[in-house]
Amino acid sequence: MAPVKKVIWAPVVLLLFVFWVLFARCRSADEPNASERDDGGTGIGGGRSSSTIYFNNPHLLREDKPTKDEDEEDELLSRNGVLTKGDRRMLNVMLGAGEGREFQEGNLHLKEAAAMIASHLRNVCNDQLRVTSMQAVFDNLPFVSQSVWKDDEGDAAQIANRMQIKLKKYSEALRRTKKRFEESHGDECRLFPCCEDYDVEKLDPLMTSSEQFGKRVLRSTTCDFVPATVSTDSFCPGRNATASFTDNAKEYPALKWQYFISPDNAYVRYPAHYVDRNVGCNDQDEARMRELYLATLHTVPKFIVILIDHGNSLSKNQLSISKAIGKTLLSFLSPQDFVGLVGLSSAPSYPLRDSCLSSTMVRATLETKIYFARFIDNLVKEKDAANHSLGFSKAFELIRNTVALDNRSSICPSMLVVYISRGLLSYLTEARTIMETIAEENKKLGYCVVINTFAVIDDDRPLMYEKNVLQDLADQNYIKYISGQLLRKAKKGMMVAVNTTQNLGSVVGNPFRVLNLSISKRIVYSLPHWDPVGKCLVLSVTIACFRDDRVIGVVGFDIHLTDIAEDLISYVGVVPRSYGFLVDVDGYVIVHPTFARVGVATEQPVHTHIVQLENRSGFQSVWEKMQRMDSGKDILVVSTGNRSEAVERMSFFWKRVEDTPYIVCTVVENGNEEGKVLKTNEVATPSDVVYHRLDMVQELKKCRHMKQLATSKAAALFLASSCFYSPFEFLSQKETRRNVQGYMAYISDNTKLIANPGLKSNVRNDVAALVNIVSEWKRQFLDGSIGQYIVRRYVATPRGVFLVYPGTMMDKRYDPTKRHWYLRALEYPGQVVLTTPYLDFGGAGYIVTVSHTIYEGKSAALHGASDAIVAVMGVDFTLGYFYKLLLESMPVCARDRMACFIMDDMGYLIAHPGFVEPNGKGPVEQQHITHKEPLVANDVLNHKEFVRKKLCNSFSDRTVQRFYKFNTSLDVTLTNLVHGEHCSRYHILAIKGTNTFLGIVNQTCDMVTAFCPCSMVDRLCLNCHRMEQSEWCECPCECPLDVDLCTNKLSGDQQFYPSCLHAPDDVYSFGVDSPLLESLPFCTDTKCPLRTTESDCFGVLGCEWCQLEMNGRIPLAHPFCVEQRRCFGGILGARTPYADEIVGLQSEEYLGMKNTPVGPVAGGIMGCFLVLAVAVYCYRHHVHRSHMHHHYVSTVPDNQMRISQLDENEEQDNCKEANAVGQSNLVMAAFENAPDISPYRISTGYRRPAGGDSDHGYSTMTPHEDSEHAPYVEPLLLGRDKCRPEIGRAHV
User: Fold this and answer.
1) Fewer CB atoms < 10 Å away: N or C end of the chain?
2) Bond prior to 271 in cis (omega within 30° of 0)
3) Residue 721: strand, helix, or coil
4) Are 1253 and 1260 in contact (CB under 8 A)?
5) Over 80: is that where the pLDDT of 1208 sits?
6) Whose CA is closest to 889, among 989, 781, 1003, 971?
7) Judging by DSSP bridges, how do beta strands 689-691 and 715-719 pair with one another?
8) How many CB atoms lie within 10 A of CB 1044?
């Protein structure tokens, strides 16, 4: 038994020894260290055991005390935000300089580090991307001049002509379909009701999946939607309905939905499909179909006032019905109509968005409908009875203030008042009073106003008298109530009794038929509409059908907007800085660069007038010419806003699309109407360039590059849709091996004998230039020193030619010219541009792209920023590589309470210690300096020459975006400008030749003395009424964009803000079977398990230094390097953004505990208690002296306490030990992970949407109505709080 006892007590003895060591260390901590005893000792040379380095350490200031003259000079320099001599001394010590070594002309060491990083990034571009080699290729290629306006046939005219040909094709098919419906209508009534039970087992095998329609469809028949209020016998679209639609689909495969709408709100749609009954079958498309039906029949503007009673006479059910009727009527209106809205109780109420809404009517645009619907939803039952007379008086006033009557004309405008009420009167003679008001007001308008009434009733409450009153109001029965007066007879309206919200579209019917409007017989084109089933934008083309001069319905097609506007969507002008847009004759924008690209749009666009987007001075006159003239050209001279009073010429070329309401316009921003293009060259496509569809190239050796099918033997050539004459055709058709072979054969053919497979003329020339770089990339791929941190290299041209190495497959929707790395490089031509971190679609985790532009070729190779850009090159690095670069450039960054960072010109962080610490806090995308370093950001704003607050209008979601712009040309080191700041000292310096800055921060306090106000739950700015440069620091945020619904103009200074560019497109990965990938070898094996140190593992592609257990809190006994998906973010088994984590991996600590005998386990438990006791003792004894021993203590905490919670229980006389760190955690809560929905985004369904990317590069956040008045903590008061919550305690 003796050996067993040794086994049992050996660990106990060992733990007792550990206990003694810990206790000794704890006691020794009471004694002041060397740096505290010695005034001059900084402890920097002592390695990691040295104390925290403080910028404002008084001991550091005693050495080499400045003279009085130096103090005066320091004060003058500090006012200008330049490093003082005192700052230089402190930073010199902080960076580890020896005694007596001084800074020369500013912070020498920070400048050396910045210069080192700048040089390294330049070498990356030259050596790894081979930018100089690529530029030399283009410099040796011939370019020829080409005009944008040649023989009166500019780009606008060519695009308009192609668009007219397409629309004419569809319109002719629509007329043929119309004729067939008119001939066969009512002959046969065989229905396939989508909303009823059907034989799934019988029909399902006949259905096929369709990307075009977004669901499984049955192409052999139509689908019929018949409301419950409509008899199936009365709806007979005819025997030729299915045959007509099927023939159209065969002839025009790009057609979306085809439909026929009857007058009683039933409709048939092709192809047949299942309907989601959870959504509501009859309500799913009813409003859309009714809007199309009415807009097709009545093309003249209508003036509608909706009057809703919400007085005390209505029950809860009746009020709900009234609201539903009001919103149904709103949905029937089209943008050409005008609408007014009045809520009526004892006094009228109006939508409060614009003051003009109480006096005039506005166009029924999507935005108007949304705000009016919100107003209706917010109506509540009032305590007082409705004043019916006052309501009608206000309704007539709205019409009178909007409609300009022509007394010389006998034709009345289409004016209608819709009154929704129970009809209960307050006194017996009130009916007479109401009728007198109507008679008097209608007389002023020539008795042209018609009145419709809706009687809302409960089934158990008969309202005979009230219904009679409402019927008399609809008939305008003056004789019954007013005697002795000769009154002109008015047009009769209609009264409809409603007792349910079901099938309201059919119940309401056509409320405009009482206006006796003329019926249009021409084709009607709509504005873009978001198809919720097919998930795309469509244009509707409709026409009315007649039988014996009687309207029998409307037939229509939905056409892909991508198909109609493909030339504008992919437009690349001959001259740089060119773009195009498409509008209708009323000025509403259909396609514009500031909107989401049509092919990748995810929601209904808001109707926006072109004058709002093109808000340059003088554009109004250009627009008026565009309305008057079918085609033309105009030049607009605008000021650039520079102090030199420079001006810029903008050339507008437009052409009306014949027989349609659409206008095409192309714009050249720099006024230069002549550009250069590559001259036709022979293409020698090397064997190491293949088309990106590697799955169709059998003879090529393939490998696995993270989560992508790839090859290291060749670069992959990808042609974006903009490379093709018909981008829509390319996107809508599946690629085959024959297509792939045809592309490469044509590109490689120098005999001109192979037919063009549909590529634009200059694509071959772009490919001929780019392929010259592949051999050099392949050589660099084997460079192990830096290649192990590189994900991929690539280059793209403005036309969309894209070359990537290692060769990988791309989704055909990908457009390199719409990606962040490409767009940012265009902002800084000739410089090294870094993107902020983003998640790699190929599986490499979070990456940063380094990109650089290539100029148009010049024989002398002398280039400037004004030269045309012909390509952009990029290389993807792992996120960890840049923090590793920081540590190598400035080793002091690894010390406690020190933080080094790299940020871009908008203040978004690229490298920061918070990005690499294994804290499990999730994404690191779009992290701003105001989120991570609010103390620094608060002071930085005082440097007016360094940073500016800017604004832009985002029309897609109706917000004003506030953001920062930092001056990359400033050649000074910035430091604290506000005196008296004792918690954080920083220095920031521009990294020359890039769009980035290098910063270093030293935290010396645990309490917060300043912070950047940010809404905790959305992106709403805390004060949208003020935006002073240095008034306060705020996170990038947004405010509502106020578009006056009456004038369709922006309010106040918003009309002068520039338009925001739309956020870059999302990237879609090309799906490959997992078993196939798992069977392939890696393209580059970084041998993660063989890397035994953190420095050797950190930042390496596909590797992760695993430091924490699965709970994210307990450190591993033996950290190790492992494949990324096994330990994402440094946490064992953590979830990955790709959902490919491997859970259950056992660390060495777990493996070592297998088969452990009972004795050591018992000893371990005893030891744990002892260690815990020592830890508690040390913590309690040194709570005021302790600091965290991480690489860096962030100013942003881990908990998620809201600022509003700080206002409660602040003053307590009897409180426990104060904890400054806990207070910091509470104040700075939630900055790490900003919420992700904007509060102002206009939704397509009278609600705020769940997301959107149009945020100008910001993370989006969640809706919050009253953030502007959210509780706010005064920073200076925080330091005076006597009681602070303990860490981990709930603060309520």
Assistant:
1) N
2) yes
3) helix
4) yes
5) no
6) 989
7) parallel
8) 16
Q: CA triplet 598, 602, 605: central angle to 5 degrees?
A: 65
Answer whether 456's CB lies under 8 Å from 314's CB.
yes
For CA atoms 825, 827, 828, 830, the dihedral sign is: positive
- For 1048-1093, the DSSP string reads --B-GGGGGSPBPPPPPPP-------HHHHHHSPBSS---GGG--S
* Both tokens assigned to 723: 């490379």
Question: DSSP letter string over 255-324?
Answer: EEEEEEE-TTS-EEEESEE---TTT-TTTSSHHHHHHHHHHHH--S-EEEEEEEE-STT--HHHHHHHHH
DSSP for 231-242 reads -GGG----TTHH
Strand-pair category, 449-456 with 414-421: parallel
Closest CA to 941 of 1021, 1046, 1034, 866: 1034
Q: What is the spatial distance between Cα 17 and Cα 1166, in angstroms, rounded to a whole number?
A: 13
β-strand partners of 144: 677
Structure tokens at 780: 């660099």
Residues 579-585, mean pLDDT to the nearest whole number: 94
pLDDT at 45: 32
pLDDT digits (tens, 9 = 90+) for 1236-1291: 334 344 443 333 333 333 333 333 333 333 333 333 333 222 333 333 333 333 33
Q: In whole angstroms, give the CA distance from residue 781 to residue 715.
A: 11
Report the C-alpha gap between 326 and 344 in whole angstroms: 13
pLDDT per residue as tens digits for the range 97-116: 433 333 333 345 788 899 99
Contact 260, 551 (CB under 8 A): no
Q: Using CA atoms in the order 1279, 1281, 1285, 1286, what is the torsion angle rounded to 10 degrees?
A: 60
Whole-angstrom distance, CA of residue 158 vs CA of residue 155: 5
Q: What does the pLDDT look like over 843-857, one tens digit per residue?
A: 999 999 999 999 988
Q: Model confidence over 829-886: pLDDT tens digits?
A: 999 999 999 999 899 999 999 999 999 888 777 788 888 899 999 999 999 999 999 9
Helix axes 763-770, 131-139, angle to 10 degrees: 130
Phi, psi (degrees; rounded to nearest 5) at 1124? -55, -40
1125, exposed or middle or buried, with CB in 10 Å at 0-12, 13-18, 19+? buried
**Cβ-contact 903, 994 below 8 angstroms:** no
DSSP symbols for 530-570: EETTTTEEEEEEEEEEEETTEEEEEEEEEEEHHHHTHHHHT
Q: Is 473:419 a contact under the CB 8 Å cutoff?
A: yes
SS3 705: strand
The structure tokens 């457009």 sit at 815
Residues in CB range of 649: below 8 A, 6 or more apart: 635, 636, 637, 670, 671
- 3 state SS of 1180: helix
Q: Give the C-alpha separation, 876 to 834, whole Å.
A: 10
Rounded CA-CA distance 1070/740 in Å is: 16
Higher pLDDT, residue 1235 or 199: 199
Buried b (16+ CB within 10 A) or exposed e, 482-514: eeeeeeeebbebbbbbbbeeebbbbbbbbbbeb
Distance CA 250, CA 101 (A): 83
pLDDT by residue (tens digit) across 490-549? 889 999 999 888 878 878 888 888 887 888 899 999 999 998 888 889 999 999 999 888
Tell me the β-bridge partners of 662.
Answer: 584
Cis peptide before 1239 (omega within 30 of 0): no
In degrees and rounded to multiples of 5, residue 352 shows phi and psi of: -95, 10
